[in-house]
Design goal:
Elements: H1 6-11, E1 17-19, H2 29-37, E2 42-45, H3 51-64, E3 69-74, H4 83-100, H5 114-123, E4 128-132, H6 138-146, E5 150-155, H7 158-167, E6 171-175, E7 181-182, H8 197-207, E8 212-215, H9 221-229, E9 234-237, H10 239-242, H11 251-258, E10 265-268, E11 276-279, H12 282-287, H13 299-313, H14 336-353
Helix pairs in contact: 2-3, 3-5, 4-13, 7-8, 9-14
The structure holds flavin mononucleotide.
Length: about 350
């Protein structure tokens, strides 16, 4: 059976499909539970969550599924606070603030919640953890391994995949440059780590022994079969699950993906200070000329938060972050169950045709 392998055995799932942890409200308990109930691995994107919210989300998800699901967390990075770049960013954002009726912007960035979240998740009995933006500390890895948890890292280069394996990760996600949302790059300037999924996956497969999960631009049975042929054990899909009915993505976001073409998603750091792939809009056009002068993540992310929120409330998608991978034409507004069942049926058919 094409779907049964080391990855499905480790994760105790039926199909080698992982729904990406997408921070920012996309991964509702309904979405993660429905994905897990249909044989794939649901993931809660907890990167931006407060502890109370995370606890509720975990408990809600557990009420809806007895199957395993994962929680995705951000590994904190070092950054410098440069007051002049903050002042400049505020100045650039001021006309948009005026248009949206926002009085002032603040960059009150919180310290990392990673340790606190790990405590809570262990108490809640979570056993599958995925990470992006880096590798957690040896202390965190040891704590999780002590409890027999399964750890999934993210790599955008072969070097990062090897680092994940050496650190003790059980599985590594190979995030190709097609991927929607933030780049997981942590060992190099991101511009040196824009490797397409087709090139990245087989090279990572050749250099690590742990199962590899391909991510970036994969939306259907064709993508899954291609990834399997490249040696990946499975796939992680973000954009395809984002437009599902159970996803908590804002309606404007879903609509933008469903009506976009492959030329619309571009890489930009103007929303958060960290490169991410999203659909081009007025906000990106206005800020791009100043991209190199803006503060780093998470400061720029904190500064633009009220803008993104007000833009949603006032139905102005031109100022929202509309993260998407490079295959938006393949997106569908269906249930997670329909998406997974369709993929399985089509994969069986593809194999027969071959
Ligand atoms: C809206 C959105 C939010 C994302 N947030 C996260 C996140 O919080 N953590 C993470 O590891 N990856 C995140 N990603 C990246 C995914 O894990 C994955 O690499 C990507 O979605 C794969 O490309 P695709 O969107 O073409 O399927 C996000 C992707 C999207 C589209």
């Amino acid at each position: 059976m094409w779907s049964n392998n080391e990855l499905t055995n480790i994760l105790d799932i039926q199909y080698p499909i992982v729904q990406a942890g997408m921070a920012g409200g996309v991964t509702t308990p309904q979405l993660a539970a429905e994905v897990s109930n249909n044989g794939a691995l649901g993931t809660i994107g907890a990167g931006y969550m407060e502890a109370a919210d995370l606890k509720n989300t975990i408990r809600e998800t557990k009420k809806m599924t007895d199957h395993p699901f994962a929680v995705n967390l951000f590994v904190p990075e070092k950054y410098e606070i440069d007051e002049s770049s903050i002042t400049e960013s505020k100045r650039l954002l001021d006309p948009i603030c005026k248009e949206l009726g926002i009085e002032s912007l603040d960059y009150s960035h919180e310290s990392s919640k990673l340790e606190q979240h790990i405590d809570l998740l262990l108490q809640e009995g979570i056993s599958i953890y995925s990470f992006t933006f880096g590798i957690p500390s040896p202390n965190i890895i040891a704590r999780l391994k002590n409890k027999n948890c399964i750890l999934i890292g993210t790599a955008t280069t072969v070097e990062e995949a090897i680092m994940n394996e050496h650190a003790g990760m059980d599985i590594v996600v190979a995030q190709g440059s097609e991927a929607g949302g933030h780049r997981g790059t942590f060992s190099k300037p991101f511009s040196q780590a824009m490797i397409g999924t087709l090139s990245l996956v087989p090279q990572i497969v050749d250099y690590v022994k742990i199962p590899v999960v391909a991510a970036g631009g994969i939306m259907d049975a064709r993508g899954i079969m291609a990834a399997r042929m490249l040696g990946a054990h499975g796939v992680q899909m973000g954009t395809a699950f984002l437009t599902c009915e159970e996803s908590g993505a804002k309606p404007q976001h879903k609509k933008a993906i469903l009506s976009s073409s492959e030329t619309d998603p571009i890489l930009t750091s103007v929303f958060s200070g960290k490169p991410a792939r999203g659909i081009r809009n007025t906000f990106i056009s206005k800020l791009t000329p100043y991209e190199d002068t803006l503060p780093p993540y998470p400061i720029q992310n904190a500064l633009t938060k009220p803008i993104r929120k007000a833009a949603y409330v006032q139905d102005k998608p031109e100022y929202m972050s509309l993260w998407s991978g490079q295959s938006p034409r393949l997106s569908k507004h269906i249930t997670a169950r329909e998406l997974i069942n369709g993929i399985i049926t089509d994969t069986d058919k593809l194999l027969k045709d071959l």
